[in-house]
Q: What sequence folds into this?
């Protein structure tokens, strides 16, 4: 996966997309037979080996599941909502079970007035890696208009929202973002849960540490965290 022009742009939360193979160079990608249709992406191989998720005919779509990201800044407990996004929750739990997120770094921190998030989920730490498969969007339909957008196009991704990054329609993989302050985005990103209060306190500490300066930009509002943000372990809580 790669980023547009080598940089992320305000208002977009991208999980990079791989370069397509030449026509006729590869067999059709494998797709699971259930309703989620997880599809292998041989042109964009996994950053860390992991099989396709299970895809039962009756995907669980009720109730919540709790997962904690244990980071070097402290715990980030999450509540995943199966009703909001059953296929996304199923994939996230699959990746957690296979320890895909363990010993990974969150590669992007933003501090725009209208976009304040931490983006994680790429074992390569570059923003270019994923799980070797993709699946369809489960987009929110009930987000209120963003009060900062007079056009009414963008929606409010409120503080505490947990959502998927993507590289365009139906390209969800492993990268996700944690909303630290109310943000205005087009409703193109699957919301699949929320961040518990303890996790928000951890996010506040991460945001306070700032974004790493570069020779081109000594005071960036978008880039790598100034101090590494490491997920030591992602654990499902029972």
A:
């Amino acid at each position: 996966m790669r980023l547009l022009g080598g940089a992320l742009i305000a208002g977009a939360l991208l999980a990079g997309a791989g370069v397509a193979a030449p026509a006729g160079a590869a067999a059709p990608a494998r797709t699971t037979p259930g309703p989620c249709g997880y599809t292998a992406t041989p042109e964009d191989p996994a950053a860390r080996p992991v099989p396709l998720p299970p895809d039962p005919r009756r995907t669980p779509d009720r109730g919540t599941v709790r997962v904690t990201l244990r980071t070097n800044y402290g715990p980030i407990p999450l509540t995943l909502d199966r009703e909001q996004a059953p296929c996304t929750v199923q994939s996230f739990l699959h990746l957690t079970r296979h320890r895909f997120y363990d010993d990974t770094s969150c590669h992007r921190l933003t501090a725009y007035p209208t976009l304040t998030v931490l983006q994680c989920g790429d074992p390569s730490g570059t923003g270019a890696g994923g799980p070797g498969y993709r699946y369809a969007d489960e987009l929110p339909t009930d987000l209120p208009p963003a009060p900062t957008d007079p056009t009414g196009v963008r929606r409010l991704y409120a503080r505490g929202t947990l959502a998927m990054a993507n590289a365009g329609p139906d390209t969800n993989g492993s990268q996700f973002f944690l909303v630290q302050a109310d943000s205005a985005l087009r409703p193109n990103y699957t919301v699949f849960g929320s961040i518990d209060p303890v996790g928000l306190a951890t996010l506040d500490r991460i945001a306070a540490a700032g974004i790493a300066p570069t020779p081109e930009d000594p005071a960036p509002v978008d880039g790598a965290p100034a101090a590494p943000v490491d997920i030591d372990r992602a654990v499902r809580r029972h």
Remarks:
- The radius of gyration is 17 Å.
- DSSP finds two helices and 14 strands in the chain.
- The first strand starts at residue 39 and ends at 40.
